[in-house]
Amino acid sequence: MLKYIEKNRERFLNELFDLLRIPSVSADSNFKSDMLKAAEYVRDRISEAGADRAEIYETKGHPVVYGEKIIDPKLPTILIYGHYDVQPADPYELWNSPPFEPVIKNDRIYARGACDDKGQFYMHIKALETMLATNSLACNVKMMIEGEEEIGSSNLGAFVSEHKDMLKCDTILISDTSIIANDVPSIETGLRGLTYVEVEVVGANRDLHSGVYGGGVANPVNVLCEMIASLKDENGHITIPGFYSKVEELTPGQRAALNSAPFDLEEYKRDLGIEDIQGEVGYSTIERTSVRPTLDVNGIWGGYTGEGAKTVLPSKANAKISMRLVPNQTDEDTLELFTKHFESIAPASVKVTVTPHHGGLPYVTPTDSVEYKAAEMAMEESFGKKPIPTRGGGSIPIVALFEQELGRKSILMGFGLDIDALHSPNESYGLFNYYKGIETIPLFFKHYAKLKK
To answer: Alpha-carbon dihedral of residues 327, 333, 337, 343, nearest 10 degrees?
Structure first.
C-alpha cells in the first residue's frame, strides 16, 4: 500500500491541485457554475478511483456528489462525508499567492480549500483507489460530498432524509478536523454547535449631517456597538438570560484530562502575533476553545468607510454574530434567547431586526465505541503513537443530523493543523498531512472490519 502511494504521489497531488483551482465558493452566487464544475470533478474522480457508482444529485441549493463501492453486502459499510465548497477568499489582497492557484512553499499547499475541506476529503478518494489497486479494501464504501457545508448545509438534511436507504451504513468517517501536531496524533471526540445571525439597527430614515443632527439623534453604529459590548461582562461571561442554563459542565476529572493535551501558551501567542490571550475567566485556553460556549462578532459595518472623510450619521448599522454551542444547548433555543434579549436592550430611538442564517447542534462521540477504537488503532499504526482524544471548537452541522436520521455515530479523523489558517487568507495544508491521511484511512478500514466481526 505504501509503495502504491509513493509511486503515485505526484499524480495524487496534481489531481488535488486541479480541484483547488476551481473556485467553488458556495456563499457567492457569482460562483454557481464553478460549484457545478467542482461537483462534476469530484464525481469523475470517484468513478476513476474504482467506484461502481458515482452520481450528482440536485438539491434546492448546490448539488451533492454520491459514490459507492459495494464489495460484499455482508461486510461493514463506511460512509465518507466531506464538502467541496469553500469559504470566500476575500480579502484577496492579503493572500501571498492567488487563492485559487495552489502553490507549494515549505512543504505546504497554499490555496483556498487546501485543508478545509478539499485536501481532506480528497484523501478518501485516493485512499479508495489505493485500497482497490492493492486488493486491500476491507469494507464497503459510500461517499457523500456536499456543496453547502460552509453555508450551513441547509439542504442536506432533506437529502439525507430522502435517501436513508441509499446512505445506510455502519458508521460515518469524516476528515474535516485537526490533530494536535504531526508528532502528536489526536482524534476529536466532539464538536460545538452553532447559531449564526445577522442583526440590523435602524435609526433615521436617511443618512444625516453629523454636524446638524449629531448629539440629537441616535447613531445606529454607536448604538449597535453599545448593544454588542453589553453581551459580555468583564469576566467574558455572556449576559443573555438563560444562555448557560443547559450548558454541560465538565467534572474536575474531565477538565484535567482535557487540559493534559500538549499545549504551549507562549507558542500559541507567537503564532497569532498577540501579546496576551482573552476569554472567559476561570477556564483555560483549551477549554475556552472547545467545551465552553462563545459569542463573537464576525463582521460589522455601517456609515461611510471609503477614502477620506464624510461626516454623516448613518441610517443603519449591521453585524453578523455567531454563537458556538456545547452539549445540551440547541441552535433553536439559543436563537430564541438571543433574539428576545437583543430586542429588549435596544433603545426606543432605533429599530432592531434579528435575521437567522444557519445553525447546528453540538456533538460528542464515545471513546469506547468500535469506530473510535478502529480510528485509534489506525492512527497508532501510521503515526507510531496512540492518538489523544480531544474536543473540537468548530462546527459541522451535519454530524448531529447523521445520528438523528441514520442512527449512526461519526468518527472525526482529520489531519489538519492549527497553523492551516482555515477561513483566512493564506490557507494551507501540509504535504505530510495529505499523504499521511491517504496512508491512515485504509488502516481504519482494516481495523474496523476486524473489530466488527
So the answer is: 140
pLDDT at 358: 85
List C-alpha distances in Å: 338 to 260, 293, 322: 34, 13, 11
- 215-247 burial by CB neighbour count: b if 16+ within 10 A, else e? eeebbbbbbbbebbeebbeeebebebeebeeee
Q: What is the structure's pLDDT at 394?
A: 87
State how far the Cα of 325 lies from the Cα of 396, in Å rounded to an integer: 12
**Is the separation of the CB atoms in 310 and 210 below 8 Å?**
no
Domain closes at, from 336, 360, 384: 360
Are 215 and 320 within one domain?
yes
| Residues 182, 241 within the same domain | no
Q: Same structural domain for residues 197 and 344?
A: yes
Residues 175, 137: one domain? yes
> Is this model's pTM higher than 0.90 or not?
no
What is the predicted pLDDT for the residue at 180?
95
* Pair 177, 203 in one domain: no
Q: How far apart are CA 163 and CA 142, in angstroms?
A: 13
Residues 74, 184 within the same domain: yes
Could you tell me which residues come within 8 angstroms of residue 315 by beta carbon, excluding any fewer than 6 positions away? 202, 203, 204, 205, 206, 207, 208, 220
pLDDT at 443: 98
State how far the Cα of 277 lies from the Cα of 274, in Å rounded to an integer.
7
Which tens digits make up the pLDDT trace of 297-306?
999 999 999 9
Residues 88 and 12 in one domain: yes
Mean pLDDT by runs of 10 across the 453 residues of the chain is: 96 98 97 98 98 98 98 97 97 97 98 98 98 98 97 92 98 97 95 96 96 96 98 98 95 92 93 95 96 97 94 97 96 97 98 94 92 98 96 87 93 96 97 98 98 91
**CA–centroid distance for 420 within its chain:** 13
CATH code of residue 252: 3.30.70.360
State the cell numbers at 212. Answer: 446638524
Q: Which one of 345, 360, 375 terminates a domain?
A: 360
Range of the domain at 316: 193-281+289-360
Domain count across the chain: 2
The partner residues of 412 in beta bridges, in order of sequence, read: 174, 188
The pLDDT value given to residue 265: 95
User: SS3 of 9, please?
Assistant: helix
Cell of 261: 493535551
* Rounded-to-integer distance, Cα 453 and Cα 446, Å: 11
What is the DSSP pairing of strand 193-202 with strand 316-325? antiparallel
Question: Are residue 271 and residue 356 in the same domain, yes or no?
Answer: yes
